[in-house]
Amino acid sequence: MIKKLTIFAGLLMTSFLVGGCQSNEKRLDDTPFFYGTWDAGFFDGYEPSTVTFDENTITTKQSIDGRQVELPRTYEIVSQKSDGSIEMIFTGRPNPVTSTLIRNTDNTLTWNVFGQTKTMKRVEPK
User: Are strands 109-113 and 97-103 parallel, antiparallel or unpaired?
Assistant: First the structure.
């Protein structure tokens, strides 16, 4: 009886150790949904642009006077709500700007920034 309990306890401890090691691994699925390049359409009403989200930088590419111009901004994530929306704040000058990202059911992204609401489609996979 004691031998069976010892074997059971050993197996139980081994399963906890193995399970604990596996849960600490970073999976590719842990990458946030909004990372990658998105087609923002006509931003500011007249210029087509793309938006790329990285770990802490948002880069907007706009066509200005026929040239592609990159406009990088840094941001910090302020909060993430239970509905999947993310509130972030741009940390650059002149004033911090609050922005919201909302993941839609059709795998598009709605971005509320500078008083505009943009629904964007993914250009490149994350």
Answer: antiparallel
- Domain, as residue range, for 102: 28-122
**Rounded to an integer, what distance in angstroms lies between the CA atom of residue 71 and that of residue 60?**
5
Is 1 within a domain?
A: no
Contacts of 63 (CB under 8 A, 6+ apart): 47, 48, 49, 69
| pLDDT tens series, the chain, 126 aa | 777 767 766 666 776 565 555 544 545 556 778 888 888 776 555 567 788 888 778 887 877 777 777 777 788 888 888 887 889 888 876 777 888 999 888 888 898 888 888 888 888 655
Q: Is the CB of residue 90 less than 8 Å from the CB of residue 100? A: no
Under a CB-based contact definition with an 8 Å cutoff, are residues 109 and 34 in contact?
yes
CATH number at residue 84: 2.40.128.20
**Residue 17 forms part of a structural domain:** no
Residue with token string 């200005």: 64
Phi first, then psi, for residue 79 (nearest 5°) are -155, 160
Distance in angstroms (rounded) separating the CA atoms of residues 122 and 103: 12
